[in-house]
Amino acid sequence: MADMSVGLERSNGIAILTIDRPPVNALSHELRKLIAARLDEVARDDAIAGLVIACAGRTFVAGADIEELGLVRHPMLRDLIDTLERIGKPSVAAIHGTALGGGFELSLGCTFRSAIADAKIGLPEVKLGLLPGAGGTVRTTYLAGAEAALKLAGTGDMLDATSARDLGLVDVLFDSDLVAGSVRFLADRIAAGNIPSPVSSRARPAERTDDGQLAKMTAELCRKARSSAPEQVAKAVRNAIDLSFDDAMIEERRLFDAAAASPRFRALRHLFFAERAAAKPVETVDAAPPRTVQSVAVIGAGTMGSGIAMAFANSGFDVVVRETGDAALERGMKRIRDTYDRSVTRGSLSREDADGRIGRVSGTTEAEALSAADLIIEAAFEDMAVKKQIFAEIDAIAKPGAILATNTSYLDVNEIARSTRRPSDVLGLHFFSPANVMRLLEVVRGADTAPEVIATVLKVARRLGKQPVVVGVCHGFVGNRMLQARNSQLSRLLLDGADPADVDAAFRNFGWPMGPCQMQDLAGLDISWRNRKALGKVDLLPDRLCENGRLGQKAGKGWYRYENGRDPKPDAEVAALIEELAAESGIARRTVGEQEIIDRTHGPMIDEGRRILEEGVAARASDIDVVWVNGYGFPRDLGGPMYWDEHFRTSSQ
Ligand code: 3H9
Question: Which of 275, 493, 570, 625 is the most exposed place for a label (fewest CB within 10 A)?
Answer without folding.
Answer: 570
